[in-house]
Write a sequence for this structure.
């Protein structure tokens, strides 16, 4: 079997490593010129970290990540609303850690080290003809494959080619991500939920990631044109810890990344010999921090299905993959969207209600589907 994986992100590299283990021939194309950019901090829940056991990479993940034991939600005045004991999840289901995206890519790449990877080359076009998929790349070269798996993220070109262009699901919010000198305890994720403003701190062993989120019309690069001081001003209503974090925001946004807080749900994941995986099929907002775990789970199911077939029945395997994965991913996405709505509350009554609810909230009441999925087979 000769499989093309489009995208060397979490899902694409994870899948490449798993296919390699099963003796399934594959290669990867990645449009970025390298995998070096640190990106942001990722939480990997047991659903994701379990996949690393099978790749012999679990120990390395633990070494290069900070254990996620405690999740603190504060209000916009810096008062602690709730401290969730995440260590209980880890004790029951497996390790949960915080890691730089780059470090996780590094770990996955080392597990797939002899899978050919072409950097700086993107998928441009594909066409299914009989039992083959004909592909054209951005450098003008072409290839013919038994199957193509689009692991090319939120704005998947693979998806647009096979299913057409559909708009993202927009929250209207965006987020700046930077590295800060403010140091929360290494095992604690700390967030400040203000009125129409959000600040978060995510520690890893080497750096602490900070994010500042709010409405794009106020906070986006177009609105503040490179001026970090204006971003800080927008958060001036925050006091206490949230204000300390915002004081560490750089004075210019040059070199920083701004992410639109959009996601996407594809109502079909497969078409014949082409399949979607990870954010390409069901993209996640950072709220709930479960997108990377879901991408790795999907990679595990895809590898399992492909290991039980030959070239003739690939389309059938893809259909089974979609049946095993789509509902579970969409339920997790529902949780992530609901959590994002709470985080983005911007009217005084809503903020009041949210803050009171958060004091008594349980993991189940916030992310019921994700919590439930930990105990379910994939
Ligand atoms: C700020 C932020 C914080 C987040 N925090 C968390 C978190 O804490 N925990 C969590 O689980 N998730 C988090 N997420 C979401 C998580 O990053 C994604 O759900 C996850 O990375 C999805 O993996 P993926 O492999 O599907 O896509 P990606 O990791 O996005 O990889 C897609 C890859 O495809 C490549 N590509 C795109 N188009 C082409 C093309 N045409 N040809 C070739 N290559 C192409 C891209 O360059 C990229 O390398 C966060 C996201 C953001 C933006």
């Amino acid at each position: 079997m000769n499989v093309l994986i489009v995208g060397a992100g979490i899902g694409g590299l994870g899948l490449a490593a798993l296919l390699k283990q099963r003796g399934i021939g594959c290669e990867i194309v990645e449009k970025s010129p390298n995998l070096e950019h640190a990106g942001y901090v990722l939480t990997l829940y047991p659903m994701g970290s379990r996949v690393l056991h099978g790749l012999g990479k679990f120990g390395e993940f633990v070494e290069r990540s900070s254990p996620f034991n405690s999740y603190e939600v504060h209000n916009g005045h810096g008062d602690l609303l709730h401290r969730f004991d995440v260590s209980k999840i880890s004790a029951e289901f497996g390790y949960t850690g915080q890691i730089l995206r780059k470090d996780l890519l590094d770990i996955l790449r080392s597990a797939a080290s002899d899978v050919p990877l072409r950097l700086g080359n993107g998928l441009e076009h594909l066409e299914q003809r009989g039992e083959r998929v004909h592909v054209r790349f951005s450098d003008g070269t072409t290839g013919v494959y038994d199957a193509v798996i689009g692991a090319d993220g939120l704005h998947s070109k693979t998806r647009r080619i096979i299913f057409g262009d559909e708009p993202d699901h927009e929250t209207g919010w965006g987020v700046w991500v930077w590295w800060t000198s403010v140091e929360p305890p290494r095992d604690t994720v700390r967030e400040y939920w203000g009125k129409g403003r959000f600040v978060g701190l995510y520690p890893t062993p080497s750096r602490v990631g900070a994010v500042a989120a709010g409405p794009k019309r106020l906070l986006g690069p177009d609105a503040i044109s490179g001026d970090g001081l204006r971003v800080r001003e927008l958060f001036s209503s925050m006091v206490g810890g949230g204000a300390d974090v915002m004081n560490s925001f750089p004075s210019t946004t040059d070199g920083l990344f701004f992410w639109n807080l959009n996601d996407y749900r594809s109502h079909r994941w497969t078409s014949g010999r082409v399949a979607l995986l990870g954010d390409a099929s069901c993209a996640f907002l950072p709220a709930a921090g479960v997108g990377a775990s879901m991408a790795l789970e999907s990679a595990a199911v895809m590898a399992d299905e492909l290991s039980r077939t030959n070239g003739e029945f690939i389309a059938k395997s893809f259909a089974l993959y979609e049946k095993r994965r789509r509902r579970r991913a969409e339920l997790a996405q529902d949780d992530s969207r609901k959590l994002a709505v709470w985080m983005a509350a911007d009217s005084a009554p809503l903020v009041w209600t949210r803050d009171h609810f958060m004091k008594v909230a349980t993991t189940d009441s916030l992310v019921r589907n994700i919590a439930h999925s930990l105990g379910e087979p994939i």
User: Anything to note?
Assistant: Residues 314-343 form the longest helix (30 residues). The chain has a mean pLDDT of 96. The longest strand covers residues 169-180. Residues 50 and 212 are 30 Å apart (CA to CA).
